[in-house]
Design brief:
Number of strands: 5
Structural class: alpha/beta
Order of helices and strands: EHEHEHEHHEHHH
CATH superfamily: HUPs
Shape: globular
Helix content: 25-40%
Strand order of the largest sheet: 3-2-1-4-5
Largest sheet: 5 strands, parallel
């Protein structure tokens, strides 16, 4: 990671879930002044944005933007199309290996493009995203190859890339970590996971369903740390 000065800022993608807030805590520990960006993109689990707002305030970010886009108009995902069912399982072992119906077409491509625009405006050359290539549901836009390709494109696509000697970097500090390792890292940084929501299909009050892929992978991580998921007991 590039040496940080007191004036270095970073844009952090903040969904309100476990991974993104851990990423925010890591960016802050590294000395970045953090600008958070979240997205209301037509997701059925918009309750996560209330969590993102609370987390941004709790962690003292310099600014927090909630960007309105409408990926639901395209459909194609159980997260944006109410006519599709979010898959539920009893155990992590039942989660399939194919790309699941909860994959939102081009979501991280769109999110990173908007984060790139935000970074140009706030003068940042660093973007943090909490993608993970181990304990995840098989999304193609969470792979290291995708991140590397987007970073290469970003360094050709903006005015800042032409005028700034320091290249833009996309940081993925969680990409090679298990969910248990992510939780341990966050706890070491003082992250309060009771404030987060990772569920794809929460109830009206925000209570996690406990059976979607995101819930099962999260529960597995806490079990491997010998802990109960505080989001379940707090909601």
């Amino acid at each position: 990671m590039t040496a940080i000065t007191p004036n270095h800022s970073a844009v952090v993608l903040l969904s309100g879930g476990l991974d993104s807030v851990t990423c925010l805590a890591i960016a802050k520990e590294a000395g970045f002044v953090c600008h958070a960006i979240s997205f209301r993109y037509g997701q059925r689990h918009q309750y996560e944005l209330e969590r993102a707002t609370r987390l941004a305030s709790h962690h003292g970010v310099a600014s927090h933007r909630i960007v309105e886009i409408d990926l639901a108009q395209f459909g194609g995902s159980a997260l944006t199309d109410v006519n599709l069912v979010v898959p539920k399982s009893e155990t992590v072992e039942e989660i399939g290996t194919a790309i699941p119906i909860t994959y939102v077409p081009a979501r991280n491509t769109v999110f990173l493009a908007l984060a790139l625009a935000f970074a140009e405006v706030v003068g940042s050359r660093d973007i943090f995203i909490g993608v993970n290539a181990l304990d995840y549901s098989g999304y193609p836009d969470c792979r290291p190859e995708f991140i590397a390709a987007f970073q290469a494109m970003a360094n050709l696509a903006t005015r800042a890339s032409m005028e700034d000697d320091r290249p833009l970097s996309i940081h993925t500090p969680l990409i090679a970590m298990t969910k248990a390792e992510i939780i341990a890292r966050g706890l070491s940084l003082g992250v309060d996971y009771s404030m987060t929501l990772s569920c794809y299909d929460p109830g009206p009050s925000g209570k996690p369903c406990g059976h979607c892929d995101a819930c099962l992978l999260r529960q597995k991580g806490f079990r491997e740390q010998g802990l109960a998921d505080p989001a379940v007991t707090e909601v």
